[in-house]
Amino acid sequence: MNQKWHRWLPWIFVALVALSRWPGLFPPSFSAVYALMFCAGAFFPGRRAWWLPLGAVLLTDLALNVYWWRHGWPVWDFSVMKYQLVNYLAYGVLIWLGRRFKPQSSFTGLLGGGVLGALLFYLITNTASWLFNPFQDPEYTKNLFGWLIALIKGTGGWPPTWEFFRNTLLSGGLFTALFVAAMKLTAPAESPVEKEAGARPKESEEEAEPEEAKV
After folding, report:
1. What is the domain range of residue 97?
2. What is the mean pLDDT of residues 146-158?
3. 9, 36, 106, 161: least buried by Cβ within 10 Å?
């Protein structure tokens, strides 16, 4: 029974994350996406660690862009799309960070990695917001002070960015803890040899990355 749940958990995680991204369900920047990206790198085998979470975010981003466009936001402008591409760069960093861990890594180690990933996402995306300034916010001057404003205070008419920072870290820690606990509790039993090797599980040779494939 556990093994069956373990097989379906990645898809359940992706579905929950896609649902949770809809506006108004969570506070700003309180998201399960950071944890999904990190845990995908740590737990998902082979190429699935990349295409499954990134594909889910891409599809939901398209739906969200249509939603915000219908509410008058210029989400299809090049300046905004360029900023969104930075989000995918940050997602890639989180997946890459997750690949530095293994499913057998300790709970606290994985939790720390998830929080670190959320912190990196915040730094990368808020720096991009300051650098590209897609909505032409006057506070984002191109100097150190403007960068610190982007990281700490933000622009007028919006909550201060330190609240986004708080929500980013809290949600990164919370959802990473939930994902890791679910994956570990439903993981199939390992042989002593597998435990000693600490190998990342593979579902098939076709799905393994080149460096993980058997010679």
Report:
1. 2-187
2. 86
3. 106
